[in-house]
Amino acid sequence: MIREGAVIAYPTDSSYALGCRIGDRNAIKRISRIRRTDRKHNYTLVCADLSEISVYARVENWAYRLIKSLSPGPYTFVLPATRQLPKILAHPKRRTIGIRIPDHPLVNAMLEELGEPIMSSTLSLPGDDLPLTDPVEIEERIGHDIDVIIESGSTGIEPTSVLDLSSGTVEVLRAGRGDVSQFT
């Protein structure tokens, strides 16, 4: 269904997320409307493994080693985008993209079947302090705006920790489920 333009709600190792196919403008716009984000929102590509990262982001050796040491897990890494990344996904001024390698068997199976990363965004709605984690509540609140809700047990309520690696250093943009104490 992702290949056909579906917007999905799915569990990850940190919380539920919204996802769609990379570069699907209509699906990405639907996610932006649901989350009420603007063009400057940092999108994330959920990748199966480290080998997919270099297609969409430029990774220096030190950043690669850091990502390898923290992945798979509840971290999103902001990196400079490559030209292969669809423009709609890159931050318009900084030309960056979030990259994530989750540690969740269902997501890993989805990525293997799809054969490419999933464009993803934490399922946080405007005015909410925490991401949605209950499939019943997801259905009640946004079921009419999405195509599929994948249920796979409980997830956490904390989103990923976001580490910006795009300027040659580690900047913590969001402290979440992943331990960031070594960077603060």
Describe it for me?
With 184 residues, the protein is α/β, with parallel strands linked by helices. It contains 5 helices and 9 strands. The chain is 23% helix and 21% strand. Strand 8 and strand 9 form a beta hairpin.
What is the number of strand segments? 9
- Mean pLDDT score, rounded? 90
- Uncertain runs with pLDDT below 50, 5 residues or more? none
Sheet having the most strands? 9 strands, mixed
Structural class: alpha/beta
% residues in beta strands: 15-25%
The strands making up the biggest β-sheet line up spatially as 7-1-2-6-3-5-4-8-9
Pick out its properties.
184 residues; alpha/beta; 9 strands; 21% strand; globular
Q: What is the gist of this entry?
A:
The chain has 184 residues and is of the alpha/beta class. The chain contains 5 helices and 9 strands.
Strand and helix layout:
Layout: E1 8-11, E2 16-21, H1 25-35, E3 44-46, H2 53-56, H3 61-70, E4 75-80, E5 96-100, H4 105-114, E6 118-122, H5 135-142, E7 148-149, E8 161-164, E9 171-174
Parallel strand pairs: 1-7, 3-5, 4-8
Antiparallel strand pairs: 1-2, 2-6, 3-6, 4-5, 8-9
